[in-house]
User: What shape does this take?
Amino acid sequence: MKMIIKGGIVYDPANGIFGEEMDLCIDQGRVIEQAGGEVIDARGLLVMPGGVDAHSHIAGKKVNTGRIMRPDDSRLGTEPRSGVCRPSTGYTVPNCYAMGYRYARLGYTTAFEAATPILEARHTHEELAEIPIIDKGALTLFGNNWQVMECVRDKDIPKLAAYVAWGLRSARGYGVKIVNPGGGEAWGFGANVKSHRDNVPGFDVTPAEIIRGLAEANEMLRLPHSIHIHFNNLGKPGNYTTALETLELLKDIKPGRMRQVVHVAHMQFSAYGGTSWRDFESKAPAIADYFNTHSHATMDMGQLLFGSATTMTADAPLEYGNARLTHNKWSNHDIELEESSGVVPMIYFRKMLVNAVQWAIGLELALLVRDPWKTLMTTDHPNGSPFVNYPEVITLLMSRAKREAEMATLHEQLPNRTTLPVIEREMDWTEIAIMTRAAPARILGLTDKGHLGVGADGDVSIYSIRPEDVDAARDHALVKKALSSALYTIKGGVVVAKEGRILAAPEGRTYWVDATVPDADHDRLMPEIEDKFAKYYSVQLSNYAVQDAYLPSSRVIRAGLSVEPAKSARTLAEVA
Amino acid sequence: MRTVKLSPRAAFSISVEAECITPDRFAPLSLSEIGAQPVWLGNRVMHLSELFMVEGDDCTATAGDVVIQLMGDFSRVKRVGEGMSAGSIEAWGSVGMHAGNNMKGGLFAISGNADDWLAREMRGGKIIVRGDAGNYVGSGYRGEKCGMRGGEIEISGRVGAFLGEHLCGGSIRVQGDAGDFPGAANQGGSIFIGGSTYLPGAEMSKGTITVKGEAKVLPSYQRTEVVELEGEAYQKYAGDLVDGGKGELFVRAL
Assistant: This one.
């Protein structure tokens, strides 16, 4: 089907287009030079590539545990079946259908599930297959895996790379996720690691060695995405030193593709100063300074917003702490040789100083890091807030007046604990388009996403706002309303949403990475895996890998030792 | 004062959901507009007037001046008085499940019985039941951490299990017996039970439960002194210690 989008004010920063009036043509799901067909009138309106969310918890066992634990959340977002839509439920943990519809209404067309253990990947793919419209993928957890720790202990990076490749293939996963490395394993014995230099009980390795080992294996395999890390000590006062020291560990690693070496997940939760919750303060300036002076790392904000959230993570000891702190219900889960995890419902309060400081830290990070290509806009859905509140975060970034109005309602001690009140920066549409579209696609290594160049996926969002007339800093309420329901969301050349109504619900694709390794390394690895299945796993090796039937519409990206690095990827330096 | 009378046209064999029956919704509407309000009969949407006779004063009023009289049997009509903030509802028979859900103010008087989930998550106002009430009076719905937060409930008869579960405030007085686990996870409300009950105050962290009849007390409660309440001797207990609770439980000393 052919389509021409006429007269929009296009923001496509990946191709150097910063608010130019131009026509866009789409044919057979891709952007092309010229076409006729259906005409979409976007005269004077804001046009961007479809949104890309690089870190969100949208599918899998812990999301579903959240749903089971929270029938109270389920009734908050019920919408009956209508038109092409199946029924929706939930606010912080929506059902699968609602995930697709709500992303599409925001103008998002791609979202990546941020943490899946290999053992539970089948469940993740069952849910991903039920999420309509958007394209997706799932990062695979490796940070507390016995096989990983053994390879790191033996300093056998080629064997580790073989395991990572095998794990990604078994999980139909997209990239290497590391969550509180070593801590999840220690949690099996009721303990945690206190720094990246602690020994992991039962394994003669430290979190630092695990992280470096996985980063080296990741780059040896030339995976499209870098390692994606949730730091040790996340969520604890004073943890910014752990963050900075961990980033220092990785600065000399050579990237296998032209991109970052490490992506830091939800940086907000790791930018804390102080020695306890009493003297808790923001260390966002120190973190931002590090990102401003180093080019091997990128991050996403993990912005926290006030109200209801559901924290869910593979960092089980953290969730134990959350449950004790809030006296709330708590789920705790052990995933055999691979991970542990937890889920705790949470409410963030305006009048609670700690929550107010957390809110400020996310914004400080985004505003103090000068290069928007390094900072993605996320809320770590649903840990900081559900993704439906992205328009709130974007308007906070664009309007100092809005930030000041918000701060007036918060705890009066806030200015003593953060620098947010003195930050003047107000982002423009180019920076927002980078943080929500171009940068996440580039950081994930998705060459067809996040831009509107010829050959890119025909994913476009059009908002009923005139960027040339509207001052986003002043009319932030208008901007928020416009961003909350896109005038048009076009996915693969099909209008899927118009003014908040879902018009079509096509199936989205699932991306995964197939990396090749030398047979010799694979053959050295397999007897060890077979041994673990014989001794420890509760399932047979033959039943472990996700079968292709679970990915009805998949897109495989090749990587590995025999594949040349992708030529289309540009470096951060080139862009700057 | 504006009076609106509703009476079922026939006995219902399946449940009706009628959350529109509140003084707030009726106040600005004429009788014919009230009759056109949507209600669910099973899985079908109908007009209120298809299921009920709608009579009374055909004028508008503020919610506080509206009296809704429910004549006849409403025991299969759910969600009556949901979210009402003012005015009053007088039910001359029994009412169905979820009556007075999330009620914020006004008066809801029931001559007959109330079914399960009466006044769940109530915020304010007053509910009086002359007969009995079902399970989960004044509770939080499934998964909710906070049930009733304010207001008053008075029940002359007996109630079912889980009276005031997750209670966060307000007061409930029951003259008859209460089923198992009244005041479970009470976080600050007060409950009076005129009759007997079984295992009150499990996981209570704050608040008060008084039992005038007999009660089996959980082993996680610590027996303290004997106190006098309204001229009678009561044994006081502190708990629930399982949850480090600071609740007070009084059971009449025999």
